[in-house]
Design brief:
By secondary structure, the chain is an alpha+beta fold. It has six helices and 20 strands. The radius of gyration is 20 Å and the shape is globular. The two termini are 14 Å apart.
Length: 332
């Protein structure tokens, strides 16, 4: 208990309280155009109503339209995705000559036009959501089916007619596309470094697939970030990110580890340690799911996150502080 109290105190001193201040610096920005495939590290990314532009806009589905992820198909980690560099500029619009390029071991590169019209398919689903999506066509389906060895298609989220809302218990009124549940995932280099000091074999940050990586804060300080401003944009931390088996998968080889880093995280980042009042004691946590307040606004001008942006005014309200202390069963 003393260790937990000391840990909380160090985090509160680093970035908590009601007064805002410098917390960290953005060192990496990641976008994952195809759900569960390899991400793209970019110098900047514009924010839309559903998260970073292009993020999880596409998804690989099976013959029944169900989304496929690395949880059941680790080979998704081997698929590289490229977009035109200018695709991450503010207000950029694709022309008929602009493509998303997909590469995978043993396969010829595949070009998918960004501005072409596609047929609509129905009964596409991911987790609790189901609806319509745009099908990228038979040539793309053949490429993916050949790579995986079974019937597979690629679909694109239908923004014109579909809405996928975040869990209202944590973030009411926000939207996402094919992400697991929330538009953004924020992690810190300090948290990764702290984990790697314990692991026998260090792992890179791509195991945790964040959107925003920051540096300069205490390890796991992001756990307590209720509100943080990045480039004058207001992000709200809404839920610790419960981790599945994906962090055990080597993102360069697609080969899973039998236990790590999950086994190590269970010793100090499990529900039993962090959230003892919750039911799932074995769940491990790494990173903070977040939403961006400005994504609710119709005016998209200036909504850009760049490497080098300061993460400022990390605020932890008194109410939130007491809630966390109660989770640890420490009087507030």
């Amino acid at each position: 208990m003393e260790k937990i109290a000391s840990f909380l105190s160090s985090l509160l001193a680093a970035g908590g309280g009601d007064s805002g201040g410098p917390a960290a610096t953005v060192t990496s920005v990641f976008v994952y155009p195809i759900k569960s495939c390899r991400g793209i590290s970019v110098p900047q990314a514009p924010i839309t109503a559903t998260g970073f532009r292009w993020d999880r806009q596409w998804m690989v589905v099976n013959s029944e339209g169900r989304g496929r992820t690395q949880r059941v198909e680790p080979k998704l980690a081997l698929i590289q995705v490229e977009l035109p560099p200018e695709a991450f500029n503010e207000d950029w619009q694709p022309t008929p000559d602009d493509n998303m390029v997909i590469r995978a071991p043993g396969m010829d590169p595949l070009k998918i036009p960004l501005a072409s019209e596609c047929a609509t398919v129905y009964d596409v689903s991911v987790w609790e959501w189901s609806g319509s999506a745009y099908d990228e066509g038979p040539e793309v389906a053949e490429w993916f089916s050949t790579f995986f060895g079974n019937p597979t298609r690629l679909v694109r989220f239908n923004e014109e007619s579909e809405t996928r809302l975040t869990d209202p218990d944590y973030a009411r009124g926000y939207k996402t596309m094919f992400s697991d549940g929330f538009p953004f995932l924020i992690t810190s280099q300090g948290s990764l470094d702290a984990l790697n000091e314990i692991l026998k074999e260090p792992i890179p940050i791509n195991r945790f697939r964040p959107n925003i990586l920051v540096e300069g804060c205490h390890p796991y300080a992001e756990d307590l970030w209720k509100t943080i401003k990045i480039n004058k944009l207001t992000f709200q931390g809404v839920k610790l990110c419960g981790r599945c088996k994906v962090p055990t998968i080597n993102q360069d080889t697609g080969i899973p580890s039998p236990t790590e880093p999950t086994e190590t995280l269970q010793t100090y980042r499990s529900g039993e340690v962090l959230l003892p009042s919750h039911k799932n004691k074995r769940q491990v946590y790494f990173g903070q799911n977040a939403v961006c307040k400005e994504s609710l606004s119709a005016n998209g001008e200036g909504r850009m996150i760049k490497i080098g942006n300061f993460a400022m005014e990390a605020c932890l309200t008194k109410v939130h502080t007491c809630w966390l202390l109660k989770e640890f069963q420490i009087p507030c």
